[in-house]
Amino acid sequence: MAFARINGIVLHHQVVGPTDGPVLVFINSLGSDFRIWQEVVPAFADRFRIVLYDKRGHGLSDAPSAPYTIDDHTADLVGLLDHLKIERAALVGLSVGGMIAQRMAVRAPERVQALTLCCTAAKIGTPELWAERIAGVENGGIEPLADNVLQRWFTPLFRETHADEVAGWRNMLVRTPAHGYAGTCAAIRDSDLRPDAGRIAIPTLCVAGDQDGSTPADVVKGTADLIPGARFALIDGAGHIPCVEKPAVLSTLIKEHLQEAGLV
User: Where in the numbering of this chain does the AB hydrolase-1 domain appear (predicted)?
Assistant: First the structure.
């Protein structure tokens, strides 16, 4: 584990793998920390220098006052890469992490070698949906929302057959700072990346879970259609967090995409 002060806040991060390998950055979803990638990282640790980090408001990173913007999150990623002296990287972003990756590809395209956009979109939800979510968190915390979130994160089969594991991921979710969670909800609410999607000229793979209750497959496919040359892949039997539910399948898709991008 390591900590660095970036843009005035402390970011928790970890770097694994060979120091001379191509860089692969994993960016987390709303309400999660970088432990969600623990079953995916081993597939790449022998070849890639892997960067994992908790975005602001999550995990062991600082949670400054809300609200946040996608540009805040993107600036944090740029600052962390600068701190680590990393010039270019392939990005794998899940949910809001995928929005950060999209923004990075437009804001600093020279620093992005490939994109895997997992269970995400250029526009997620409606302002009304996010206003309701923010109000709920501000009034009662994350606990009252947790079970509904988990129903979107994981399929019924996974929740039934991995009850203890789901309980652990629930602990991660509810222990996220409420204002950090709400601050990132505001970032999603206020972001519409569709006007810039056509400017992304980086090899892109968009991945959806067939039972994702947060970013349904047709929404993810709609974003793939906006990005020139982007490919779309569907994971059967997965909800919103396939890196937990179907890590081997997701790892294979990412690896094939990186091979096509010339990084493997």
Answer: 22-247
